[in-house]
């Protein structure tokens, strides 16, 4: 199995994206303050806080942080897949996984915070999701066009190289892939034509 085939696996990409999100959150010490129900255990608080740090914010700098980290990790499937459908579906899967859990857990274990902030956070979750889809589709198309133009240029170069080695008999029109001295069809001397061609190229 090729290395690229391993990276194309959705689970691997999901784990890579999650790892990078973790690195961003822990490196910059990002932490969103939550209020929990009285009966919420310490373990439950840790799990909820874990998901909330990837998705929620309260001030503009934190909003920018959340947008930056999610747009950054959304670039990974774009460059691996080079296909807009696979890119945006993979990005939405990674993006909505923690969002789904954080809303469910907040509703159950932080009801006051959920009731007061649900609409604000939900709207921003949808907006960021739309932005991720737009970036995934747009950038995938741009990369595909660049690669297509590069391949087309390589094909044209190969065609030019191939045509440079061809010789056409001036008498009967037979085309040769090699450079013969005489035409096998009409026995015309082709050395003169080849020398003329070399002289023009020089």
How would you explain this protein's 3D organization?
Strands 1-2 form a two-stranded antiparallel ribbon. The protein contains seven helices and two strands; from the N terminus they run H-H-H-H-H-H-E-E-H. It has two domains: 155 residues, no CATH class; 37 residues, no CATH class. With 202 residues, the chain is mainly α. Helix 4 packs antiparallel against helix 5, helix 4 packs parallel to helix 6 and helix 5 packs antiparallel against helix 6. The relative contact order is 0.09.
| Structural domain tally | 2
Helix/strand/pairing class, anyone? mainly alpha
Low-confidence stretches: 197-202
Which bin fits the share of residues in helices? Answer: over 70%
The arrangement of helices and strands along the chain is HHHHHHEEH
The count of strands amounts to 2
Separation, N- and C-terminal Cα atoms: 49 Å
Form type: rod-shaped
- How confident is the prediction overall: mean pLDDT? 84
**Percentage beta strand:** under 5%
> What Rg, in angstroms, do the CA atoms define?
30 Å
Number of helices: 7
Largest sheet: 2 strands, antiparallel
Question: Order of strands side by side in the largest beta sheet?
Answer: 1-2
Topology, element by element:
Blueprint: H1 3-8, H2 10-27, H3 42-55, H4 60-81, H5 84-109, H6 111-164, E1 167-168, E2 175-176, H7 191-201
Antiparallel strand pairs: 1-2
Helix pairs in contact: 2-4, 3-5, 4-5, 4-6, 5-6
